[in-house]
């Protein structure tokens, strides 16, 4: 049985923090807890508009975390400079449009071979493992091979939205097999949940899953009993200490 890794995407911890403009909850603390709980790596997306992860988060995570860091970023000169200066274990190149809520659709590797080949080469020269976030299409996987990308991450958004339709799982399976045949390591991610992750995790060529939104959302529910009990205990104890009857 080959190994499968879980990359925890901390972007949405930063989204919650930014909603109040303070420091809590700190995405670095979430990364540390996730690694202790069994995550194998930390993924974070430094968007051009810095809507969740900020430069300072990337710097702090890079300085404090020993596990592999996977930096998701757009294909821009600014991001290339940041990646080369920071030297994360891996960079995942993603398409980015300012207006989108999240990363909608994969990178058009087949239509960007001329742009991507030198960009990927610069990252590889800096000893960064490069992956291309692409739709599960054979043509995109083959373009990744021509570009020289050692890794692809298959976009599972359409699979997740159409969960139960065998055709979407079959698309992932054949793109993953094609990647393996071309010697490309295959990752997958986007929209994965407790409910839909198993069939993707079972595909033999898939070596890593990157998951964020569901994990952060579900942590709210699984964590609420603990934090409510702790807060209630503290406020009741404070009232007792004053000697005032409840
Ligand atoms: N992989 C990539 C390349 C992504 O852009 C995202 C979304 O940030 C994910 C994985 C994780 O998706 P989700 O947050 O839906 O789990």
Task: Tell me what you see in this structure.
- With 246 residues, the chain is an alpha/beta fold.
- It has one domain: Alpha-Beta Barrel (TIM Barrel), CATH 3.20.20.
- The chain has ten helices and eight strands.
- Strands 1-2-3-4-5-6-7-8 form an eight-stranded parallel β-barrel, surrounded by six helices.
- Helix 5 (113-125) crosses helix 6 (138-147) and helix 6 packs parallel to helix 8 (166-181).
- The longest helix is centred in the C-terminal third of the chain and has 29 residues, at 213-241.
- The chain is globular, with a radius of gyration of 20 Å.
- The protein starts with a strand and ends in a 5-residue tail after the last helix.
- The model has no long low-confidence stretch (mean pLDDT 96).
- The structure holds pyridoxine-5'-phosphate (PXP).
- Pyridoxine-5'-phosphate (PXP) binds next to strand 8 and helix 10.
Features:
48% helix; binds pyridoxine-5'-phosphate
Strand percentage, roughly?
15-25%
According to CATH, the homologous superfamily is Aldolase class I
Distance between the termini: 59 Å
- How many beta-strand runs? 8
**Which cofactors or ions or other ligands sit in this model?**
pyridoxine-5'-phosphate
Structural class: alpha/beta
Order of helices and strands: EHHEHEHEHEHEHHEHEH
- The top-level CATH class is Alpha Beta
Q: Average pLDDT across residues?
A: 96
Multimeric organization: single chain
**What count of structural domains?**
1
What CATH calls the topology is TIM Barrel
Overall 3D shape: globular
Helix tally equals 10
Largest sheet: 8 strands, parallel, barrel
Rg for CA atoms:
20 Å
